[in-house]
Design goal:
Elements: E1 3-4, H1 8-13, E2 17-21, E3 24-29, H2 34-43, E4 46-49, E5 54-59, H3 63-70, E6 83-89, E7 95-105, E8 108-113, H4 118-128, E9 134-137, E10 142-148, H5 152-157, E11 171-177, E12 180-185, E13 194-200, H6 204-215, E14 221-223, H7 225-234, H8 269-275, E15 280-287, E16 298-301, E17 304-315, E18 320-328, E19 337-342, E20 345-352
Helix pairs in contact: 2-7
Length: 362
């Protein structure tokens, strides 16, 4: 039976269309619809319930050493209040998950896990940990609300009792918002400026309602899973189970900058080194014919299958169909035309650089 987040009743009041996702009942969209929600985030602001995400605390004198071994990124030189993204590999170099790591102090880190992978991740992490440590799952007692879009900072700043983080991938703890004490990070999964707020479950409904009311005149809309997916796809952000999985390495997924081979060791390093140059790579596709490529559709070049689509959609802001695919390395270059076998119908597609969309810098 699916769980309900602390914001379930708020979604029903807003006429959210509830669907099962990662063990929870969550809104796929609201009255305005996915396209309108998407455009609100690109032009104003959107509000998301992401309380289904997992959060664990890793503490102890060996917390840092364990992170260095578990994850492919390098956490040396990381200061309190900073956040780093990292894949986590299995011994064969495939991806167990991709995570965010928040440094609270030198012996305490909060790790944010993908919702569908929470139990798997915790079991994997627990199995690898060594020395003096404690791993505490705080997922069930934590709610997470994301406010995203170019007007998100002004909306949130008007409610917060302390200054917000200026730099991306930083956070501040104990900020008061609508009477709740929140950890507020300048992060998101939309390709826009924005913030993610972590709080106790009982505080989430009032924070949600207060943000909704404060942002109404600025164009803020509540947003569901549908818009979250189209937004991340325009920004070419990988989704676990699509661009990443246990058989896809972070190097194949185009995440090489987060795989620090200059570290002494991490789980999966030897396998990645032994494999040499990745045999596959992630590309972007613009669909030239009428139709939408979907995950699993075959990518064809000169009558031969060279890969498959990992994600595809009609991009509301860009006004065209786009997709990401995993194809043979060197199989195609930017500007090349390929075919996508879309359930028996061949669609023409052009290889294009990623990301499809990048927010303008202020």
């Amino acid at each position: 039976m699916e769980k309900k987040t602390a914001l379930y009743d708020a979604h029903l009041r807003a006429k959210g269309k509830m669907v099962p996702f990662a063990g929870y009942l969550l809104p796929v969209s609201y009255e305005a619809g996915i396209a309108a929600e998407h455009m609100a985030v690109r032009t104003a602001a959107g509000l998301f319930d992401v309380s289904h995400m997992g959060e664990v605390l890793l503490s102890g004198s060996d917390a840092f050493a364990n992170l260095q071994n578990l994850l492919t990124n390098n956490f040396s030189g990381m200061a309190d209040g900073q956040i780093r993204y990292s894949p986590m590999c299995n011994t064969e170099g495939g991806t167990v998950d991709d995570l965010l790591v928040y440094r609270k102090d030198k012996n305490l880190y909060e790790i944010v896990l993908n919702a569908a992978n929470r139990e798997k991740d915790i079991a994997w992490i627990q199995k690898q940990l060594k020395g003096h440590f404690a791993l505490t799952d705080i997922s069930e007692s934590t709610s997470q609300i994301a406010i995203q879009g170019p007007r998100s900072a002004e909306i949130l700043a008007a409610l917060a009792d302390s200054p917000l983080s200026v730099k991306h991938y930083t956070f501040t703890e104990n900020i008061g918002v609508a009477g709740a004490r929140c950890l507020v990070s300048r992060t998101g999964y939309t390709g826009e400026d924005g913030f993610e707020l972590y709080m106790e479950n009982q505080s989430a409904p009032l924070v949600w309602d207060t943000l909704t009311a404060a942002g109404r005149n600025a164009g803020l809309l509540p947003c569901g899973l549908g818009a979250r997916d189209t937004l991340r796809l325009e920004a070419a952000m990988p989704l676990y189970g699509h661009e990443l999985d246990e058989d896809i390495t972070p190097l194949e997924a185009g995440l090489g900058r987060f795989v620090r081979m200059d570290k002494d060791a991490f789980i999966g390093k030897e396998a990645l080194l032994s494999a040499g140059i990745p045999r596959r790579g992630r590309i972007g596709l613009e669909i030239l014919d009428r139709g939408i490529a979907r995950a699993g559709d075959k990518v064809i070049l000169d009558g031969r299958e060279i890969g498959y689509v990992t994600s595809g959609t009609m991009a509301p802001y860009l006004g065209k169909a786009i997709a990401m695919a995993l194809i043979e390395s060197g199989g195609a270059a930017d500007g090349d035309e390929l075919g996508v076998d879309c359930r028996g119908r061949m669609l023409r597609a052009r290889v294009t650089a990623l990301p499809f969309y990048k927010a303008a810098k202020k």
